Structures are given as structure tokens and as C-alpha cells.
């Protein structure tokens, strides 16, 4: 049986492979908890459930520190987390992934900003899982400030989960290109799919070439797609090693990368995207394609950033990622 140990914001760390999940009582937080428990069951990992208690500056002034009030809030939050974990364990997805045994769970309640607290707790973790507020046109509002912040700043890959469960877990979709972060994303996708017994669809999106001038004709679409297919095959071989790879389907599609990946991932269990934006602007730091996918995809989305590329440890049949 697993244990729900409360750390109360101490430095005690769970041992072994660790998945951190942020829970705040929202439907998205509950979905994130179920996803984390399910993934941990399949990976043989343990889960650290984290909730941050925002602290009113009035409470913590030098002469006004109300430790009893803070402790009451922390204790109540811990009880709610334990109850939430117990309820999530009964979810069919969790029970199906871990029949007869429970995933080890540790509960952590920390005072402070939720986004910054999750980034700190996720140091050294395998994954950080958070819920989103929904899907739609207003990216920053619907993604939520916490999900946006951790996706851009966490030291490990981040999975953003919507409140509605994925339609299926039999497919994992990953966007690929020549970048090293894309290679790390492919490695993550293959590892996750292996735990699910799912197939991987590795998608390279080719945007048709157009010119303002008629003096130089654009290359035929057929030639462009043929070249792109060869490129996609080389990317997969470079990351996974010589084939065959029967559980990996290489696809080449035309269009806008974000739209194509969202469309392809309909009905999938997970969409994995690399984000290599170096913009210092808060709204752009995640990268336009990754942000589009996180906001609009109907399935959970894993975001892999450049700092994660060296962390993508290859599985038994996965070669070290190539560098682009």
C-alpha cells in the first residue's frame, strides 16, 4: 500500500523516481492528480502531491506573524489533499494502471506562491503535472498563470492536463524537427508510450514554400513532401537508432505546426512538444507552437524545453538523442 505522508513544507524528499503534481481543488487539479497517479503506476514511480497556501503579507509582518492561523490553514489543506488522493485512487484509470497495489504518495503543503513553489518542488523530479483551466482563444487566461509559469520555468518536463479525460491512451503524438529539444521530446514520447503499450505518431510539419515574386516558382509539393519524409525518417533513426520501430509511425503533414499537431492529437492519450523559445517576454517564453498546443489540444500536453534535452535518459531500446 502507498502512504500519504505530510511534509508540511519541510525539505524531506521522497526517494526514487518522482512525479510532482500540483493540486488546488479545481477540476483541472483533480484531473492532473489522476494523470500523475496513473503515469506513476505504469512507470514504477512515486507521486508528490503539492499544494501551496498563498500567504497574506499582513500575516507575516515582523510583529504580526500569526503562526496559529498559518498552521490551521496548512493542516486543513493537508487533510483535503489526503481526501483528494483517496478519491483519485478510485478512478478507473488509476485502478486499471495499478491493480492490487497503490502508488506511493507524499503530501506537501507549502506557504507561498503556487507557481514558484511547484517549480522549486519539481527540482530533480521526473515530471511536473498541473491542471489547466480550459481550452479556447484567450491563451494566458485559460491556460492559467500557474501552468504557464511552470511550463516555462520548471527544470523537468511539464504535463498540462485538462479537466476532461483523454479519449484514448493508445496513441502518443509528438512533433519532430531537427532541433535537439525535438529529439528529447521524441525520446520522452517513446518512453511514455512504452509504459502505456501505445504507439507513437512522430509528426513533422512541412509548411509549403511561397514566394512574393513569380520569377522563381515554388518547388512542387510532391518534391517537398518527399524530401520532408526522408528528413523525418533520418530524425527518428538518429534518435531511436536503426529500425525497424514497429510502434513508431512517421508522418509528414503540411500546414501550420500548432494547428496540425492539435488536429493530429485528437483522441490521443498525450501530445509531446518541444519548446525552444528564448524570448524574455512572459507570454512568449513558452514558444508559439507549444503554447498553441497546450491551450487548444484536447488531450494532455507534455512540454519539453532545451534545459530538459540532456535529461531525456534513453530507454533500453532508445539511443541517446542527436543534437540539432
TrEMBL record:
UniProt family annotation: Belongs to the universal stress protein A family.
Annotated protein name in UniProt: Universal stress protein
Domain named UspA: residues: 17-162, 171-305
Superkingdom per UniProt: Bacteria
Amino acid at each position: 500500500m502507498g502512504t500519504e505522508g505530510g511534509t508540511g513544507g519541510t525539505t524531506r524528499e521522497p526517494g526514487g523516481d518522482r512525479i510532482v503534481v500540483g493540486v488546488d481543488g479545481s477540476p483541472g487539479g483533480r484531473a492532473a492528480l489522476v494523470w500523475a497517479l496513473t503515469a506513476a503506476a505504469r512507470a514504477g514511480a512515486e507521486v508528490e502531491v503539492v499544494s501551496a497556501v498563498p500567504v497574506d503579507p499582513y500575516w507575516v509582518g515582523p510583529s504580526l506573524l500569526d503562526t496559529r492561523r498559518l498552521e490551521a490553514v496548512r493542516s486543513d489543506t493537508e487533510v483535503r489533499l489526503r481526501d483528494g488522493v483517496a478519491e483519485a485512487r478510485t478512478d478507473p484509470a488509476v485502478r486499471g494502471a495499478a491493480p492490487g497495489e497503490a502508488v506511493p504518495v507524499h503530501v506537501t503543503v507549502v506557504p507561498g506562491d503556487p507557481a514558484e513553489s511547484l517549480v522549486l518542488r519539481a527540482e530533480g523530479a521526473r515530471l511536473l503535472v498541473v491542471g489547466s483551466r480550459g481550452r479556447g482563444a484567450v491563451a494566458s487566461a485559460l491556460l492559467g498563470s500557474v501552468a504557464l509559469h511552470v511550463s516555462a520555468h520548471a527544470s523537468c518536463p511539464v504535463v498540462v492536463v485538462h479537466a476532461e479525460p483523454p479519449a484514448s491512451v493508445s496513441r502518443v503524438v509528438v512533433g519532430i524537427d531537427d532541433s535537439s529539444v525535438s529529439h528529447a521530446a521524441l525520446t520522452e514520447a517513446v518512453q511514455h508510450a512504452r509504459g502505456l503499450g501505445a504507439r507513437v505518431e512522430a509528426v513533422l510539419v512541412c509548411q509549403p514554400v511561397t514566394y512574393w515574386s513569380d520569377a522563381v516558382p515554388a518547388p512542387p509539393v510532391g518534391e517537398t513532401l518527399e524530401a520532408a519524409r526522408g528528413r523525418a525518417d533520418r530524425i527518428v533513426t538518429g534518435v531511436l537508432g536503426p529500425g525497424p520501430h514497429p510502434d513508431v509511425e512517421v508522418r509528414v503533414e503540411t500546414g501550420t505546426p500548432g494547428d496540425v499537431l492539435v488536429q493530429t492529437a485528437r483522441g490521443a492519450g498525450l501530445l509531446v512538444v518541444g519548446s525552444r523559445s528564448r524570448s524574455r517576454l512572459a507570454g512568449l517564453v513558452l514558444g508559439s507552437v507549444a503554447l498553441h498546443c497546450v491551450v487548444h489540444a484536447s488531450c494532455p500536453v507534455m512540454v519539453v524545453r532545451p534545459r530538459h534535452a540532456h535529461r531525456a535518459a534513453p530507454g533500453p531500446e532508445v539511443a541517446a538523442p542527436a543534437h540539432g
